[in-house]
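FORM 7B: Structural annotation worksheet

SECTION A. Query
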Amino acid sequence: MKDYIVRAMTADGFVKAMAIASTNLVERARNIHKTTPTATAALGRVLTAASMMGNLQKVENGALTLQVKGNGPLGTILATSDAVGNVRGYVHNPSITLLEKYAGKLDVGAAVGTDGMLTVIRDLQMKEPYIGSVALVSGEIADDVTAYFAQSEQTPTACALGVLVDTDQSVKVAGGYLIQLLPGAPEEVISRLEQGIAKAGAVTPMLSDGLTPEDILRRVMADFELEFLETTEVCYKCYCSRERVASTLITVGKKDLQEMIDEGKPITIECQFCDTKYQFTPDELRELLASL
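SECTION B. Predicted structure
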């Protein structure tokens, strides 16, 4: 099954919701970055959240970057989404040892750390991007995303994320949901939502049972009449190109470019988001130097 996001609204107009199946894009990230299970779970949650948050953008060519920087062994985790929900990302230390709360339960919070910040950068195609940061709550990512929306955007939000790593270290299932209250929602709606979320339980078991994003929203919001609005396919997508890498090379300056040329050997630059490698010969580097 392809990865996709589904968006919905309650018939009373008080709640909007979205859910995602992100198994393939998280597995693609695992293959690129050779992540160990705990790193896979953490990076997968950040990618899943960024995909949904990017899809919420109201600007056609907008972009969203979600950065989680805690004091745990993973270091910085970063994911960037376009306005559709296609994402790319990386984790600073992808090869950390296994951290578990108990057998079979990965401890993402300990791997991320609770002393740190979650930062969201929204590129809305304006002069300056919008940047919002909040202190990490638990390092489990979903709690931290919920705190971000409440504190930085004043939007009451429920976020759930799940990544299940199989015994062969591949991604068995991944996904999540975002539910947000709209202005004017009465307390009774909040109470019904809280009860539905509690009754539905964690998102990983639902994904493991084969529930689709639509099924997950129906279960979590069983007490509401839902209207499904749109479905959007998403994937792990990197926008790197030879031209972009060349532009980055130019920014190192004449002195460093000349030193590379003087070594007389081709240089290889690997994209930090994907497994694409770009090689530049000394002659190509001379052309870049001449362009300065």
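SECTION C. Observations
The first strand starts at residue 4 and ends at 10. The chain has ten helices and 14 strands.

SECTION D. Sign-off
Analyst initials: ____
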